[in-house]
Amino acid sequence: MCRSENGPEAIDILAVDDEQVNLLLLSGLLRREGINVVCAKSGYEALALLSKHDFALILLDVMMPGLDGFDTAERIRAGEATRHIPIIFITAISKEQRHVFRGYEAGAVDYLIKPFDHDILKNKVRVFVDMHRQRLAVQRAGEALARTVAELRSSSRALSDSRARYQSLFNSMLNGFVLLSMEEGAALPQARVLEVNPAMERMMDRPREMLVDRTVSELLPNLEGHLRDFTAEVARSGRSGLVETYVADLRRWLRIQAYVPGPGLLALVAEDTTARRKAEETVQERTFQDPLTGLANRALLLNRLEQSMERSRRRLNYLYAVLFLDLDRFKPINSSLGPAAGDKVLCIVAERIKAAARGLDTVARCGADEFALILEELKNPAEAMQVARRVCREMARPMEIDGHTLRFTASVGVVLGPADYAQPEDLLRDAGIAMEHARTLGGGKVKVFKWAMRTRAQYALNVNQHLHQALDRDEFRLHYQPIVDLKTMALCGFEALIRWQTDGRLVPPGDFIPHAEQTGLIVPIGQWALAEACRTTSLWRSRFALPEGFTVAVNLSARQFAQPDLVRQLARILEETGLDPQLLKLEITETMMMQNPESVVHKLRGLREMGVKVGIDDFGTGYSSLSYLRRFPINTLKVDRSFVSDLDAFENLVIVRTIVSLAHNLGFDVVAEGIETERQRDFLAGLNCEFGQGFLFSKAVSGDQAQDLLDVCGPAHAGEA
Questions:
Q1: Are 484 and 430 in the same domain?
Q2: Where is the EAL domain (predicted)?
């Protein structure tokens, strides 16, 4: 360290990095700021340099061969003479929570992630360099003051000569100084104040007259015990010491240097570090706290969860649980009322969850509208369910947001511990899986995780991944279920049903269609099925004399029907395949029909104008309006198999009779699904239901088998049929 002629003395900082180019970069940046950068290429070299320099700061790389940054920091903190030196980690490691926790435990005051902003680095370094200069100034002032006090005690002339210098030092010191009279063997509370400087007056918030000749116990009645022990050791040994502590009476964090300037004396130099501490707490909050709600964030949640898992391994009867909850129907709030209203909702939700939780529980926000709780020290598993139900009740209460009364429910997944988990992320994942199962029950429900749920979730993930490749690999197939005339038993059409052929087996639609709908793949899959059905039907027409009124029915999914260019897509398919539109019947569900009736009427008219027939599938399971039903340009109502399969139930019999009568009154024909017995067939025929399909006639067959049926049942064999 040296002093320049026209400026402050150059301050040494230590840069530790195994890459020479990084050391050159740091040296070049900081030497322009009047800072002397001492370089070390390893942790061992850095430790050797500590005894030769008084460093203001250490810039320490984490990933180094031999002794890494964490171990180097721990050794620095273990040294009596070096533990006060602040350390900033400069690393390329992702700022993942476990690296952050280890870094702070090793003694880091901050992190910089490579590549870092040069101005941010210089500003951070400048703060610690200034603090070091202040500490040196305080130390020198204290030493000078001690020498002055010694001179005063030995010579009245020295006292007179040094009065001005002594007073100047006192008045110019940035840090507080107090000189105490302390008898041998006495404790700090009994020490009496001999002198204070103006900075100490400001710290104590009292004038000099109210401090001098008072005992420490009078000024600080709640003095911390460890501070008494610290000063007693300095007074006994005569060696100076340094401590940083919170002084409750002053409501300040103080960095106190204590030394013995002479017999019966104790000098304390105090630096107010409250602002720095608050800044560090702000960094901690930004690292581990959700800025919107003030709850713990995901990083802190995972850390606390890891601690709970560790406790459960050490303690035989330790019970804990994780609750993962998601707001049902939250997304429309942002789109309708705006993000600000959504933020208000989340803050209210956070407060309600805290109100439902117990005092020792951790409440965290994990995502946009996802929250989690760690319930610790449970008496039994039922206590976790009680908390989960309280949360659901709190969520169900209406909330007032910007003049709107909003109502929400929350789906809650629960994982009960202890359980055999290696990582907290796995436990949180399973709680999320249980939450998704709770949501499928209709929202506002609680579901406890079971291992079978993970198997189903992994299966769903596997299906979703393979579905993306199935179209490219041409793995989809259409099977065709015959539709027959219930009076003549003649073949009058087919319903095209999709299958997925993969790994040597046919996957039924119920095992993959829901996943395709969730991912949006249902649209291209549906387009393929429509085009394939049209191509096959056109081929049949060229080979066979198809019966009069023959149609092939194709189901449209809700997403496919919602495509704005559906009519244009169909026109293109019909043109490419050369299919007569009269041979194609498109089927939509009753629920789809009623979601946006006006738009549906317009789209159906476009299809009918092309010559395509339209049927309503699963009729009777939804909530159709008769006024709209009369306006829909449709040809067929299809009775759902749930009514046909149990005609012994009187209510089902009445429903089927009503549907058939309603269809005929509106000019529609009727197809009954799921006919499996002759009794069902005869009953439906007796109601004048025109058509039927089901296992009584045939299951769905491949395209080649359907072609064989046409060959057998064509007009040339009508008499045999």
A1: no
A2: 460-714
pLDDT at position 514: 81
CB 190 within 8 A of CB 163: no
| Residue bearing tokens 């933020």 | 343
Instruction: Specify the DSSP class assigned to residue 431.
Output: H
pLDDT 10s digits, 405-438: 998 899 999 998 777 788 899 899 999 988 988 8
Same domain, 198 and 240: yes
Give pLDDT, residue 646. Answer: 84
Instruction: Please count the structural domains in the chain.
Output: 4
Using omega within 30 degrees of 0 as the cis cutoff, is the peptide bond preceding 418 cis? yes
Together in a domain, 314 and 195: no
Residue whose entry in the numeric block shows the structure tokens 């003395």: 9
User: Does residue 564 share a domain with residue 415?
Assistant: no
Q: Do residues 616 and 588 touch, judged by C-beta distance below 8 A? A: yes
Q: Which of 238, 259, 249, 85 is nearest to 177 (CA)?
A: 259
Q: Contact at 8 Å (CB) between 493 and 448? A: no
Is residue 285 one of the residues assigned to a domain? no
Which has the minimum average pLDDT: 296-310, 326-340, 344-358?
A: 326-340
Q: pLDDT exceeding 70 applies to what percent of the chain?
A: 90
Which DSSP letter does residue 511 get? G
Q: Tokens 């000749």 label which residue?
A: 213
What is the bridge-based pairing of β-strands 409-417 and 176-181?
Answer: unpaired
Q: What rounded mean pLDDT belongs to the chain? A: 85
Express each pLDDT in 243-297 by its tens digit. Answer: 888 888 888 889 999 999 888 899 999 999 888 878 766 666 667 888 899 899 9
Which of 87, 116, 145 lies at the terminal end of a domain, its last residue?
116
The span from the CA of 368 to the CA of 186, in Å, is 59
DSSP 102-139: HHHHHTEEEEEESS--HHHHHHHHHHHHHHHHHHHHHH
**Ramachandran bin of 708, using left for φ above 0, alpha for ψ from -120 to 50, beta for the remaining angles:** alpha
Question: 358 and 271 in one domain?
Answer: no
Give pLDDT, residue 392: 92
List CB contacts of 645: < 8 A, sequence separation 6 or more: 674, 676, 680
Residue 125 lies in a domain: no
Q: Kindly state whether residue 456 falls inside one of the protein's structural domains.
A: no
On whether both 535 and 612 belong to a single domain, the answer is yes
**Where on the phi/psi map is residue 115: left (φ > 0), alpha (ψ -120 to 50), or beta?**
beta
Q: Which two tokens stand for residue 542?
A: 């060229």
Domain final residue pick, 277, 306, 341: 277
Judge contact between 132 and 57, C-beta under 8 A.
yes
- Interacting residues of 270 by C-beta distance below 8 A, sequence separation 6+: 175, 176, 177, 178, 200, 203, 254, 255, 256, 257
pLDDT, tens digit, 9 for 90 and up, residues 581-599: 999 999 998 778 777 788 8
Residue 72 has which token pair?
A: 């180097």
Same domain, 259 and 295: no
Across 283-403, the runs of DSSP E, i.e. the strands, are 320-328, 362-365, 370-375, 399-401
Q: SS3 of 91, please? A: strand
Residue pair 338/281 in contact by the 8 Å Cβ criterion: no
Could you tell me which of 223, 212, 54, 32 has the C-alpha nearest to residue 139?
54
Predicted confidence (pLDDT) at residue 387 exceeds the cutoff of 90: yes
> Is the residue at 324 inside a domain?
yes
Please indicate, yes or no, whether residues 225 and 343 belong to a single structural domain of this protein.
no
169 has pLDDT over 70: no
Cα separation of the two ends of the chain? 109
> 146: which 2 tokens?
């001690």
Specify the pLDDT at position 719: 39
Highest mean pLDDT among 55-69, 439-453, 681-695: 681-695
Q: Which domain holds residue 367?
A: 291-449
